[in-house]
Design goal:
alpha/beta, 14 strands, 7-stranded parallel beta sheet, 17 helices, globular, 44% helix, 2 domains, Rossmann fold, single chain, disordered C terminus, 433 residues
Length: 433
């Protein structure tokens, strides 16, 4: 925390009042350091652990500048997932409520026509995933996206992900439609400052533009997880993972805890959701095969505690701020240690305590070693679940629930839509070649 106030950082009076109304009264380190630099017209790279208030660090100075001249399309915020875009849009809407701010959310899974009509109204801030905004730029016409050339700010949130090859084509389309670098401010925020992000520090700056400001909270690379996060592992035979999960979620310590269970594949997410539901656990899921409305509903149910457990792929690993999360379970171990950091960062946010427990099978040992090296910390053994208890209490009924879930998924042809889409993409490539 900082001894500064938001007012002393140079923010508008109305915005300081809005922050106070949201019970945000003392700036964090990333906010104290980045807000004045952005208000002074500097491009900025901000690195800080998850849960440290990065959204306010870029939203507050942008809103202050906008309120001085509230005209047309003022800022574009790009982020890798729909859920994170929706969360950022909520924060902008809440902060700018007293000022009649116009926000446009441009993400996949929603009506393209409706989005095009909203873009034609020249919203002040566009919060988007690169793929959907690129689609509008290429297909929706100048009357829809022409105003982008006058934007004052471009933000890349979760910049380390956006600067990978996955997003490079769409990102290039979006950036080409914006003002040149010397005519806009560019702000990059991330919990993981990668080599691609770091390389931008050394990019040449125009003489008439203030030099780029780069700020990392503490040593982001060596202390990658909060001190309030307890990191544990549980050795689990592969074929009884579901039984261990059920026992952990219903043990005395966690029977009332709000938990996110991370998996690597959508099919696993669906099997676990159905299995836990059969076992009468209040559960929902979040993965790429769900329609957008269902993804939105799942998050809302979990936020409102209507569901106690969220089964998720890595679409939920980044940036999502759900204060109620007390436990993160890595049901599947991610290949990339940074993904582990982002998953675990869904709990123990903003000084609160939280637990992250990883299910480790024999083939996961090298991944766990890489994670321990990356977070600079050894995992402790979890003592909440014991083998005999799992076998005696849970195995039979969990196995039955899983079998029924798999039969229902087969009956409903789960995954067929994705398989057909993949085949269509292969056929189209073959035709073009």
């Amino acid at each position: 925390m900082s001894d500064k106030s938001f007012k002393s950082l140079g923010l508008s009076k109305w915005l300081v009042e809005a922050l106070n109304a949201m019970r945000i009264s003392t700036p964090t380190a990333i906010q104290s350091n980045c807000i004045p630099a952005i208000l002074n017209g500097r491009d900025c790279i901000g690195g800080a652990k998850t849960g440290s208030g990065k959204t306010v660090a870029f939203a507050a100075p942008m809103l202050t500048k906008w309120s001085e001249d509230p005209s047309g399309m003022f800022g574009v915020i790009l982020t890798p997932t729909r859920e994170l875009a929706m969360q950022i849009a909520e924060q902008f809407t809440a902060l700018g409520a007293s000022m009649n701010i116009r926000i446009c959310l441009v993400v996949g899974g929603e009506s393209i026509v409706k989005q095009a009509l909203e873009l034609q109204k020249k919203p002040h801030f566009i919060i988007a995933t690169p793929g959907r905004l690129a689609h509008h730029i290429m297909a929706s016409g100048e009357d829809t996206v022409g105003g982008l050339i006058r934007t004052k700010f471009l933000v890349l949130d979760e910049a380390d992900i956006l600067l990978t090859s996955t997003f490079s084509k769409d990102l290039a389309v979006c950036i080409q439609k914006l003002p040149a670098k010397d005519k806009r401010q560019t702000l990059l925020f991330t919990a993981t400052i990668t080599d691609q992000v770091r390389a931008l520090q050394n990019a040449p700056t125009q003489e008439y533009k203030p030099p780029l400001y780069c700020y990392e909270v503490g040593t982001v690379d060596t202390v990658a997880i909060p001190s309030t996060l307890k990191v544990e592992y549980l050795l689990v035979p592969d074929y009884v993972k579901e039984a261990y999960l059920y026992q952990l979620l219903t043990c005395e310590t966690y029977k009332d805890s709000s938990a996110i269970v991370f998996v690597n594949r959508t099919a696993t997410a669906e099997v676990l959701r159905r299995t836990l539901r059969e076992l009468e656990i209040r559960v929902t899921s979040l993965h790429s095969q769900l329609p957008q409305q269902e993804r939105t509903n799942s998050l809302q149910r979990f936020r409102a505690n209507a569901a106690r457990v969220l089964i998720a792929t890595d679409v939920a690993a980044r940036g999502l701020d759900i204060p109620i999360v007390e436990l993160v379970i890595n049901y599947d171990i991610p290949q990339d240690p940074d993904t582990f950091i982002h998953r675990s960062g869904r709990t123990a946010r903003a000084g609160r305590k939280g637990d992250a427990i990883s299910f480790v099978t024999p083939r996961d040992i090298t991944r766990i070693q890489s994670i321990e090296e990356r977070i600079n910390k050894k995992m402790e053994k979890c003592d909440k679940v014991h083998d005999t208890a799992v076998i005696r209490k849970a195995l039979t009924k969990v196995t039955k629930a899983k079998r029924e879930s798999l039969m229902a998924m087969e009956k409903e042809n789960f995954g067929e839509k994705r398989r057909l889409q993949k085949q269509r993409n292969i056929d189209q490539k073959s035709f073009r070649n």
